[in-house]
Amino acid sequence: MIYGKPATEALREEAERLGAKRVYLIASRTLNTTTDEIEKIRAALGARHAATFDGVPQHTTRDVVTQIARQRNGVFQRGINDEKNLPKLLTTRDVLEFATIEGARANKLDRKVGTLTPGKEADLILLRTDRPNVAPVNNAIGAVVTNMHPGNVDTVMVSGRMLKRNGQLVGCRFRQSE
Description:
Helix 1 packs parallel to helix 3 (37-45) and helix 5 packs across helix 7 (140-146). This protein has helices spanning 7-18, 29-34, 37-45, 62-80, 92-99, 101-106, 140-146; strands at 23-26, 49-53, 124-127, 153-158, 161-165, 168-169. It contains seven helices and six strands, in the order αβααβαααβαβββ. The strands form two sheets. The protein has a four-stranded antiparallel beta sheet, with no helix packed on it. The relative contact order is 0.09. The longest helix has 19 residues, at 62-80. By secondary structure, it is α+β, with helices and mostly antiparallel strands. A hairpin with a 2-residue loop joins strand 4 and strand 5.
């Protein structure tokens, strides 16, 4: 139940309200395998359902989201094996958009943040591409989504204010522990 509505109905309505073309479900394995709720949601979403990932631990991290993006490889393999009626593959660009404009849109902040557009607040993250975990950088979006981690964050600017530069926090003073 979500706000007194069955989850299936609430999620379908939310996808419609947001104009979502594809919805990637992230659920617990228990919910997906011991109930029919996720299957009901898939059916209600119809063609909007891109795929389902059911390996979510508590307090999901970016690493789990990366696993989700990699799950698309399983769908790709099914296509190689001539399986029919496969869901559309989730791309690394989709994952990046989930973290930027789609997150802003879901929180009704897309007029303020989520894209680099004149008039919007300047929230920027500059990532280091000179680290071994990033190579090769022949696909920038793919490198960000699948290879990078917090150690690659060099600079952070929020609303035009510098918070991190050269990998160091700016304007923060910490007391030495005794």
